[in-house]
Amino acid sequence: PTPPYLKWAESLHSLLDDQDGIQLFRTFLKQEECADMLDFWFACSGFRKLEANEINEEKKVKLSKLIYKKYILDNNGIVSRQIKPATKSFIRDCVMKLHIDPAMFDQAQTEIQTMMEENTYPLFLKSDIYLEYT
Amino acid sequence: IDSEDDLLQECISSAMPKKK
Fold first, then answer.
1. Which residue of B has its CA nearest to A48?
2. pLDDT tens-place string over residues A86-110
3. Chain A residue whose CA is closest to B5
């Protein structure tokens, strides 16, 4: 069978589908001071996966505010800098007006994913961290 | 603040693949 680390080179999704891959990619991103991008990507997926029930409604409001505050509000943050202004205002409006929707972070997640696919992921595959691991 | 961090961390972890 193909060793996991070779699969990681196939696509970003293959990498993010493996615990060890995520860990190594995170170590690399931390070194580049952009681990927040990965955390944000998973936070968006986790938020979308929250089931619709009464207990979760309060949780969703809290979480949407937390994600907004931690990653989007600060314009100098690594995540915020990669997200389009229109996407940021859309999320701000959702949070402010309590229009909490499972898909409210989807566009922002896509923008961060594109950034990783075009930039940090190819760099990771060429990095010492990955090459030493293989 | 701690519980806020926990909530966010829990959300992040919930989206990660489980150990194979």
1. B15
2. 999 999 999 999 999 999 999 999 9
3. A66
